Amino acid sequence: MLRTLITWLIFVAQVALPASGLGTVFGPSNIDPLGNPNDKLGCTGKHLRMTDKVVAHKTLSCGTHLLVCVPRNGRCAETIVADWGPVHAAIDLSIGLARKLHHNGKEVVTWTVLP
Q1: Residue 62's domain is classified under what CATH number?
Q2: For burial by CB atoms within 10 Å, which of 7, 12, 39, 80 has the most?
Q3: Is 90 within 8 Å of 21 (Cβ atoms)?
Q4: Does residue 85 contact residue 25 with C-beta atoms inside 8 Å?
Q5: Residues 2, 91 contacting (CB under 8 angstroms)
Q6: Which range in 9-18, 31-40, 63-72 is most confidently predicted, on average pLDDT?
């Protein structure tokens, strides 16, 4: 019973509360610069492209839908967790998503889990 309650509280906290942290951009070193698929497969099993509007996250489940925002300019976009990582940041944005949000490559972002 206690374990179920704890699991439920963690789920509610992830869905209801926005998280924030350093957002970086994954791109040419991870993905073919021309946007062609290469050997890099995301956690969904699909090839990643630079133009995809997706994120990588260490702890959120693959396929989780998020609303990602850049507080500096107020821009937000819905996206999906499509890869694991990053190592030195809280979340990695694809180049396509970073361009859409006018993200400068290394700045704080917020994200909220969508139902």
Answers
A1: 2.40.40.10
A2: 80
A3: yes
A4: no
A5: no
A6: 63-72
